User: Which sequence fits this backbone?
């Protein structure tokens, strides 16, 4: 074989190799783009986030992130900030501002007059804004027995329930742990909250089942959700222990919990209420939503 022939073959091989490299170079960016594709929510769960956990961001910044992730709205945003939510086509998924505090609530009659006035005003505000859920709290025991607390809550809440029913607003009492975060809080067990629901006997009074809080005080989360789901109108998440990210660093397995919630036919909001440890706070929120998106 001549040297000319050898050169021709070598040139052919080089050209063929270059073509393969070119083809490969076009495939690699395409694969990278595929990898970076935005996660598309399944649409089975209506996702939300609690405002206070991301207080390091402006509300506008959190709204932009919420839209990018695919959230329906934001929990615990006061009425003065509702126009900002509306600007981003987001909902106030759990309205607040009518309560006095977590420790001063319906179980103590000395607060009834103030609470009734506050809730009458806020029920109208919530309804006029086109929202539905309005937060409330039981208050602390301060030496009070459970039965007295139940009776006092019924006496007070009944005075606003008619208006709530007429306006389509759901008064929602949160279950909080009294072991670590909210010492002496009365509505710290699901059965106490369910008994209150039964006595009020209204579809416009529900419980906010905070998975983090109830894991601490009760455990047995999935069974409780299955048994008492008709009394639950809203859910909050966070990792146990510590109230941080809901990933593999903590003890709850949220995919199974979300599947249990979904199996009950629940179609309202699940709000992330963890305090992110990561410097990439929005990244933590995005991952939490993806974990809960069953």
Assistant:
């Amino acid at each position: 074989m001549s040297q000319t022939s050898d050169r021709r073959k070598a040139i052919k091989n080089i050209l063929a190799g270059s073509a393969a490299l070119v083809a490969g170079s076009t495939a690699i960016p395409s694969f990278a783009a595929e990898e970076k594709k935005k996660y598309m929510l399944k649409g089975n769960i209506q996702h939300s986030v609690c405002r206070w956990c991301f207080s390091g961001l402006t509300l506008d910044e959190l709204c932009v992130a919420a839209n990018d992730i695919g959230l329906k709205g934001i929990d615990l945003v006061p009425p003065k900030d509702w126009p900002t939510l509306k600007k981003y086509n987001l909902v106030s998924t759990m309205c607040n501002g009518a309560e006095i505090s977590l420790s001063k609530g319906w179980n103590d009659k000395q607060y009834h007059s103030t609470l009734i006035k506050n809730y009458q005003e806020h029920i109208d505000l919530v309804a006029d804004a086109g929202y539905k859920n309005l937060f409330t709290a039981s208050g602390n025991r301060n030496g009070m027995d459970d039965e007295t607390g139940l009776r006092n809550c019924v006496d007070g809440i009944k005075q606003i329930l008619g208006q709530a029913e007429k306006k389509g607003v759901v008064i929602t009492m949160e279950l909080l742990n009294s072991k670590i975060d909210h010492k002496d809080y009365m509505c710290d067990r699901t059965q106490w909250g369910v008994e209150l629901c039964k006595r009020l006997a209204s579809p416009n009074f529900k419980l906010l089942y905070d998975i983090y809080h109830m894991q601490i005080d009760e455990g047995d989360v999935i069974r409780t959700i299955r048994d008492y789901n008709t009394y639950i109108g809203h859910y909050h998440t966070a990792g146990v222990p510590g109230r941080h990210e809901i990933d593999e660093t903590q003890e709850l397995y949220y995919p199974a919990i979300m599947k249990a919630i979904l199996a009950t036919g629940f179609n309202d909001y699940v709000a992330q209420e963890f305090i992110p440890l990561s410097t990439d706070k929005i990244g933590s929120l995005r991952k939490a939503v993806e974990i809960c998106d069953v």
The chain has ten helices and eight strands. Residues 1-37 form one domain. The mean pLDDT is 91.
